[in-house]
Design a protein that fits this description.
The structure is a single chain. The chain is an alpha+beta fold and 250 residues long. It folds into two domains: 158 residues, no CATH class; 53 residues, no CATH class. It contains seven helices and ten strands. The strands form three sheets. Strands 1-2-3-4-10 form a five-stranded antiparallel beta sheet, covered by helices on one side. Strands 5-6-7 form a three-stranded antiparallel beta sheet, covered by helices on one side. Strand 8 and strand 9 form a beta hairpin. The longest helix has 24 residues. The radius of gyration is 28 Å and the shape is globular.
Length: 250
Amino acid sequence: MSDPQDQNRSDQHTSAEPAADPRPLGGPDQPFADRVYRSTMGAVAGGLLIVLILWLFVDTVLHGHGRDVWLALSGTVCFVPLLGAYTMWPCVRTNAQRLVVRNPLRTITVPWAALETVRATLSVEMEAEGRKFQLWAIPVSLRQRKRSNRQAMKATTGETGGFGLLGRGRAVRDPYLTGGPGRNAPMQPTAPSRALADAAVDEILKQRDTQLTAQGEAALSGQVQVAWTWWIIAPIVGGAIALAALLIAG
């Protein structure tokens, strides 16, 4: 016979374990982690340029005189927000309810039910309520797309570029990919990588379809909201006006 005290301790230990939640992740009653898309290289380049402008401004303040300081100040007020708006600020966020696009001068909020399509051609753009918006945060690289297409063709045909006796650039049938004679365990072709812009578009559309299926179109309906980022526009315009006035007066 088992000890009643041991059995009670076992029951207490079992009941203390958290029960699994049967609800799907990302449902209307659960938080959905935001997915963020942005150009890392663009943000890094913009940050370096902003640091350079600030360094030049500080140097002018320390060693400049009179009008030079005011020119440096107005130029810094104009160009620092301008560079930040076009390099570090843009991003695309998706969650369980909506798609939020932060462009340089305005922010577009699109509920999933209002999003019609997203496509990547020479740039990434979306359509919502009959209106088109560009997604500045997701750049399109034609070189990356061509490389991905070549990888896809090689994975489909099992061919790689040849050298040596067959000549440079000539297609060669790879026995490791196609299972040539004498190969007991041929290598399987790996899935080709997608271009970043094309992969991001596919992920956004897939998430929209997933959320519409899980929550229903009525729960995700709403109007597209467009808000101008005046706190970025105001210093750009003010600095540009001051800089133009100083140049004309000089």
